[in-house]
Amino acid sequence: MQARFKAGIRRMIPWALPVLLLVLWQLFSWNGVISDRILPAPSDVFTAAIELTSTGELTDHISISLGRATLGFLIGGLLGFFLGIMNGIFRFSDLLLDTSIQMLRNIPHLALIPLVILWFGIDETSKIFLVALGVLFPVYINTYHGIKNVEGDLIEMGKAYGLRGSKLFFSVIFPGALSSILVGIRFSLGVMWLTLIVAETISAHSGIGYMAMNAREFMQMDVIVLSILIYALFGKFSDMVAKYMEEKWLKWKT
Amino acid sequence: MKKDARVPHIHLNQLKKSFDHTVVLDGINLKVNQGEFIAIVGKSGCGKSTLLRLIAGLEHYNEGSISIKDKELAGLNTQARIMFQDGRLLPWKRVLENVGLGLKGDWRQTAIAALRDVGLEGRMHDWPSKLSGGQKQRVALARALVHKPEILLLDEPLGALDALTRLEMQELIECIWEKEKITTILVTHDVEEAVALADRVILIEDGKIVLSKNINLSRPRQKTQQVFVNISEEILSRIVDPNEQNLRLIIK
């Protein structure tokens, strides 16, 4: 009983600070320390969320943003993963491709926004392209280094024990690189949101970023703050997903 | 088991190996019979581990030949299993899966049986990181034996273990060898260990075999026995170079 109580407390501690901040914010808004022209009260933001949800607007924007993020992440992540594996294993493709990938990597992908708008307009393709591009490199780098850093001794052992080709890959090389690959995924989830926010803010006619920019035109402070909070929650959520994967697949490390 | 007295199980003929102009093995001739237990001793860097890796097919030799039952070795030696000093268990596979590595078909029962032989059946669901050094080496031994190899190559497998665990492992290796009669080559820097286990002790110095000594003692061998001590002393005195021996005399 006591142990369960302690475990419950421990689970609540990380949320203590955000909740405290929220309470203080509400209190200061009520007694006028924070003017509602600078920052709306949490209760106002909450009301805005209810209103937008009832019209279906909020869920539309959220699902559109989530869809873009997921699709871009899958395309860029899989491409980065595949290239990382290829270049990590095969010397020829490493020689052929790595230098070019490293050059592309050093271009800030957000600098491509003007070009991307000219290429794809402001519809879905441009956002997905930017997210995919941003996600590709962290996944690539970490997969590549993960594979290169698998202990040579273990690979030699695997070969001496009769492992070849895909068996060697799935028994030794991939598990050896997995922790590094997951670091890449975690990092790229951050890049994914960042890219999407910027892309949606600059050029879109739907999505959370658009909702915020649109609200600015009508001085709807509560909606702007709402969209920022939604991004924070999404960020936390993707971090939880990454952590879950690490706990599930890297059990042997504990 | 079929035994052919004329054809040695392993035959090394004028074997030469060099790394970047440094000669490591310089004309090694050695015949190992079926079921024989050979120990190779020598100082570190004398080339004894390289010799083992050549027989395993993990390295290529420059000159000479290696024949396994009269067939020239090309590439990996599939009849041999090598056990390394550092165990090399896969940390992301549980003990049982480590033992079953590379097995085909219904591997679980075979792997469990192999773990039983080394007395670690109870730990089959643990991660390797939870095992002690001696237990890891036992798992590595089980993993080598599970393939029913004809040749067992041991590359200082007990080098990193404490004295008591070493003795236990030596008994285990001898017991398994007597049961299975696998042709075994043990590389070690411990002369006592070599004399305790091997039918024949080979001393390598500067890439050449300088001593080959048959050990005709009954098993299990008593390390306190006078004959045992004499043989160990004899081999050890050949390893320690003359200058160092002078130094010993001066100290005495």
Key structural traits:
heterodimer; A: 254 residues; mainly alpha; MetI-like fold; 10 helices; 0% strand; flat; B: 252 residues; alpha/beta; Rossmann fold; six-stranded mixed sheet; four-stranded antiparallel sheet; 8 helices; 10 strands; globular
Overview of this protein structure:
The complex is a heterodimer of chains A (254) and B (252). Chain A has 254 residues and is mainly α. Helices cover 83% and strands 0% of the residues of chain A. In chain A, α3 (57-89) packs across α4 (91-105) and α5 packs across α6 (124-148). Chain B has a domain at 1-78 and 200-252: 3-Layer(aba) Sandwich (Rossmann fold), CATH 3.40.50. Chain B has 8 helices and 10 strands. In chain B, the strands form 2 sheets. Chain B has a 6-stranded mixed sheet, sandwiched between helices. In chain B, strands 2-1-4-5 form a 4-stranded antiparallel sheet, covered by helices on one side. In chain B, α6 (191-197) crosses α7 (226-239). The longest helix of chain B is centred in the last third of the chain and has 18 residues, at 163-180. Chain B is globular and about 50 Å long. The termini of chain B are far apart. The A-B interface holds A 153-154, 156-163, 167, 171-172, 175-176, 178, 251-253 and B 56, 58, 76, 78, 81-82, 84, 86, 88, 90-93, 101-102, 127, 129, 143, 147. Chain A: Keywords: Cell membrane, Membrane, Transmembrane, Transmembrane helix, Transport. Chain A: It is a multi-pass membrane protein. Chain A: Its main location: membrane.
What is the terminal separation of chain A in angstroms?
A: 26 Å
- The average pLDDT score of chain B comes to 87
User: How many domains make up the coordinates of chain A?
Assistant: 2
SSE-based structural type of chain B? alpha/beta
Helical residues, percent of chain B: 25-40%
Q: Within the CATH hierarchy, at the fold level, what is the topology of the domain at 1-78 and 200-252 in chain B? A: Rossmann fold
